[in-house]
Write a structure and sequence with these properties.
mainly alpha, Growth Hormone, Chain: A, two-stranded antiparallel sheet, globular
């Protein structure tokens, strides 16, 4: 038994590396945006597209990964995802222009979507019921870990670039730091592909394809012979029942009986992303630079974002069955509203003024006869200050030297901003981040759960794409304070909805929830239940 448990853990950890790569690939861009904006002379929307393009293709991949894994096998799709990660990493690192970079990022997005769907599916299918929850949770933990490691490696590469050693210059880490940040993913992608070579195919998929003897051999490696035979018989029984079930189409989801549960699912899916979590994950150093702490410090503080996310995700996994889903959502969204308000207040209280000494220092980098136009003028917002600098010195100067210009001028409490960001991430990670997926698996009736989760997951990913796309534009046109205030307002709307509409699902069976959330006397109940 100990041997089989060790085998399960080993295989699950290997497959869950897809989650690590997904988290890494998604958030490594946070350290890159500052440099590609200047190198490729990007507008704010172009910068947002460079970040969000990965999410767009990952959304498309989520729609096709399930059918592809059903046809060709879970293992084939996972290996393909590993190859796509590697191609994306190399292509992004070597990108000669903006279009090439976006294309490479979009290729990586297909790997993200494929691993997001297929990895937990594979782990669930190969794990015995007694440890399935723990095994599947490895994937979520690896996603969070990948995000944290990306923040750390970005900071490490940035610091290495300041090292005067000859080997640093020889490798181009100083001149091409952002390319090294993106290219570093090649190593775990190659390792993932190699590790997958020892991973067996899903026994359930083998049984579906009529390869029962192969399925039996694999099942005996994760449990004893008797239980393996019972599991295989159960799989065969389910396959026979599946043949008798009617095909469920998307239009079934819009029947009156499912109206309430569909609205709940859509609101939760939108709220999880529209409160700005991926704006923080994907642009953390950019946000911290707005406080004037400098580039190196902004990258180091981003590491705390990843660590906070990791710790509070683990806490959520421990609390969710103890305190309940609704309770965590209420506490978490209340925290999101509070800390977004704190961020908005912190930036609203900031002042920007360049005195004679500041101008003297800046003139060493920026030669202009027009400094007198903005010297000794107190600007009460980042928006008015940046507009004045742009009018006086030009857009190109503002983009290239924004960190220096803000650092010299700003008067703000950076600790307030750090507390606000970390508090927001903690509130998200302990609540709507992981709780959303648990709710999706509980809210929808058995017979339509797969279709329903795909639909609301698609909406969730689409909102994530939009948030990432417009965030740089929001900072440039709405300002820091208003941007975070908007995120907090969306959180308040979601909180009111949850308080008034969402029932607590803790401790209730799926059948009990179906009675609560759907009308049993309507036509959909004639469908066979899984």
């Amino acid at each position: 038994m100990a041997k089989s448990r060790s085998y399960i853990y080993r295989i699950s950890l290997i497959v869950a590396l897809g989650g690590f790569l997904m988290g890494f690939d998604a958030s490594v861009i946070s350290g890159v945006v500052k440099f590609i904006e200047l190198d490729f002379d990007l507008s704010k929307l172009q910068l947002g597209w460079a970040v969000s393009s990965l999410t767009l293709t990952s959304t498309l991949a989520m729609l096709i990964s399930g059918p592809l894994s059903d046809r060709y096998g879970r293992r084939v799709v996972l290996r393909t995802a590993a190859i796509l990660y590697g191609i994306s990493a190399v292509g992004s690192a070597l990108a000669p222009n903006y279009a090439f970079l976006v294309t490479a990022r979009m290729i990586g997005g297909f790997g993200v979507g494929a691993s997001l769907i297929t990895a937990p599916m594979y782990i669930a299918e190969i794990s015995p019921a007694r440890v399935r929850g723990t095994m599947v949770s490895f994937n979520q933990l690896n996603i969070v870990l990948g995000i944290s490691v990306a923040f750390f490696t970005n900071y490490l590469i940035l610091r290495l670039g300041d090292n005067p050693s000859a080997w640093v210059s020889y490798l181009g880490i100083d001149e091409y730091n952002w390319r090294w940040m993106l290219g570093l993913e090649t190593l775990p992608a190659v390792l993932y592909f190699l590790f997958l070579l020892v991973v067996p195919e899903s026994p359930r998929w083998l049984a579906v394809k009529g390869r029962e003897q192969e399925a039996q051999i694999i099942l005996e490696r994760v449990t004893d012979r008797v239980r393996a035979q019972k599991v295989l018989e159960a799989i065969k029984d389910n396959l026979e029942k599946d043949k008798e079930r009617k095909s469920i189409s998307l239009k079934e989801l819009f029947k009156p009986a499912l109206r309430l549960v569909l609205v709940i699912g859509i609101v939760i899916a939108i709220t999880q992303q529209i409160t700005g979590i991926n704006a923080v994950f994907f642009y953390a150093p950019m946000i911290f630079e707005q406080t004037g702490i400098g580039t190196n410090a902004s990258f180091s503080q981003a590491i705390f974002v990843g660590l906070t996310n990791f710790v509070f995700t683990i806490l959520a996994m421990w609390l969710i069955d103890r305190l309940g889903r609704k309770f965590l959502l209420v506490i978490g969204l209340s925290g999101i509203i509070f800390f977004m308000g704190l961020l908005s207040l912190g930036f609203a209280k900031a002042n920007y003024i360049l005195d004679a000494e500041d101008v003297k220092v800046l003139k060493e980098k920026i030669d202009s006869p027009h400094w007198y136009k903005i010297q000794d003028i107190n600007y009460d917002s980042d928006l008015s200050y940046k507009k004045a600098v742009s009018r006086t010195l030009g857009d190109e100067v503002l983009v290239k030297y924004q960190t220096d210009l803000i650092t010299r001028a700003i008067d703000i409490n950076p600790w307030l901003i750090l507390i606000g960001i970390l508090g927001f991430v903690a509130s998200f990670a302990v609540s709507i981040g992981p709780v959303m997926w648990v709710l999706f698996s509980e809210l929808f009736p058995n017979w339509i759960r797969g279709v329903a989760i795909s639909f609301v997951g698609f909406i969730n990913s689409g909102v994530s794409f939009l948030v990432q796309l417009v965030f740089p534009w929001e900072l440039a046109n709405l300002g820091n304070s208003m941007t975070f205030l908007v995120f907090g307002a969306f959180g308040a709307v979601g909180l009111v909805f949850i308080l008034l509409i969402l029932p607590e699902t803790k401790g209730k069976t799926l059948e009990e929830l179906e009675v609560i959330l759907a009308k049993k006397n309507l036509k959909y109940n004639n469908h066979a239940k899984i």
